[in-house]
Amino acid sequence: MSDDILLEVRGLRTVFDTRAGQVCAVDGVDVTVNRGECLGIVGESGSGKSVTFASVMGLVRSPGRIEAGEIVFDGTDLRKLSPRKMQALRGRDIAMTMQDALTALNPALTVGEQLAEMLEAHDDDLPRRRGARRAAIQARSVEMLTLVGIPSAGDRLRQYPHEFSGGMRQRIMIAIALASKPRLLIADEPTTALDVTIQAQVLELISKLRAELGMSVVLITHDLGVVAEHCDRVMVMYAGQVVEEGPTAQVIRDPRHPYTRGLLASIPRPALRGQPIRPIDGQVPDLVDLPPQCRFLDRCPEAGEACRHLIDMHPAGPARRARCIRIAVPETEKA
User: Fold this and answer.
1) Which of 24, 223, 267, 297 has the fewest CB atoms found within 10 Å of its own CB?
2) Three-state SS letters, 16-54
3) pTM of the model
4) CATH topology of domain 1-93+182-335
């Protein structure tokens, strides 16, 4: 494992047992997150984005389970850790913000109590003496809310989640996640249900804190526009597999997988005003009964007979890969 790599996932397979059969939500996924970088994860709902990183966090519960794979964080194999050691690492070294802050935050506890809970669990530098400890937690909580741009932080600590707007709740989620200064932040759809202005503020906040704290960020989203603006690299997922990955600018400018091209073509653009949006035809395959072929086959406008078997990831240029046998790498990129 290179010194530049903070998180490395190899061959991850996560399944869920249901009455209809076994759902393979994540199938053979490889992920690398470098120190200090922002990796974007994109794909349709159900593509396996959130389950991949819930697996990394050790948050997959029955009827789900990790069937195979290796998850290494800074040299430590997370799958070999005891539940106690994993709980200590989760939140302290790796933190995750969930999709819906209103349901992720505890409605029965004040914001201050929830911040204090995180600090008590993961901040080893707190004083042992009760009075000093309480004062240190209060000061640190005010510092975190101020850091994420919440005014009158001292007063707001006594309020409950329902007393905040959607954008403020999302900021609180980020504050709780960053309270222990993690080395990796996993932001799962951090702008869900927010208006465009608040979305921009939350994303700028994450970028600002990433620069200030020197942490790595995984940004899970369905919005390629967000990825283009904030991420160094992008990983595109479809039906539980990675179908393309590489430097964001290159993937956006010259996508090598038909699914990535379809996602980009479906984005509304001012230059195309008045023209119909081009959605990707067809449906995602049934994850209970996956066919032994390219999973995008039935929706792909470029499919041929050679695609009617399982497809591996192929080199698609420097630091780029795609799950397609029809890749044509320009001569200038083969070196």
Assistant:
1) 267
2) EEECCEEEEEEEEEEEEEECCCEEEEECCCCCCHHHHHH
3) 0.89
4) Rossmann fold (3.40.50)
